[in-house]
Amino acid sequence: MKKTILVLTLSLVCTLLIGNPRTSFADRISNPIDNGKIENGRMLIPIRAVSEHFHSEVIWNQDKASITITRGERELLLRVNSRTAFINNNAISLDMPVRIDNNGTTYVPARLFAEAFGGTALWSQQERKTTITIGLEQVYIHTEPLKPWRMSQERINVLNKKINEATDLSSYSQIREYFKPYFTEKFINKIIRSKGIQNNAILTNTASISYDSTTSGRMHQSAYFDTNSIQMELINRYVFYTFVDNQWKVDDVNVGRQIIDP
């Protein structure tokens, strides 16, 4: 009886946390926002864009020059040019006032928004971006427009599809020709030797890419899969890209698997 209860409890927890055994943490990562600002050592974020990425309700009150963001049971009330905000009607002081720029975009400190909804805001000096995490959801806010050399989302999706297809090469008669538009020659040679990407899994959602330079980037994907009634398998996939032949290609893929016991 106890074993049955344990299995049912674990199953319920997995459902609540994961929803679908093939759902990845990457599923919950939104596309980046590129108009954050740095002022007086504070990272400011466009409040409406970030709020909507977190599926929050945003209401603007023209008469009061205020904006209300509601997410779950929490409500954040902000007034333009004010150094006071209200979280569930509790007043808090701000280091700098809420303001509207010349384009009509309302900006607030990143940490204020994140902590108001029980999350965190982490600044990366190297990438000039802030990562806001609330629960299993993340949004990346860059302080400058994305560079034109960065990979388009369409290209990212295409390359990810080809990585999934390279799990088993037995159905391809012309492996080199088929993958040449998407993989580098080095990586094609690797998967031919190993007869496919080792330990690979079908991961359909992509994460944000970290760029080491204008010609190299990397992405980390992760997902949980059910292995049996009481165990799950954590899969981490690391993808490395390079810009070659005037386009982005996959240069390497490493996949790790780990059994998670309750």
Strand content: 35-45%
String of helices and strands: HEEHEEEEEEEHEEEHHHEEEE
- Widest sheet, order of strands: 3-4-5-6-7
From the helix content, strand content and strand pairing, which structural class follows? alpha+beta
C-alpha geometry = elongated
What's the β-strand tally? 16
Low-confidence spans: pLDDT under 50, at least 5 residues?
Answer: 1-30
State the share of residues found in helices, binned by percent: 10-25%
- Supply the number of helical segments: 6
Distance between the termini: 17 Å
Give a quick account of the main beta sheet: strands, pairing sense, barrel closure. Answer: 5 strands, antiparallel
Mean pLDDT, to the nearest integer, reads: 85
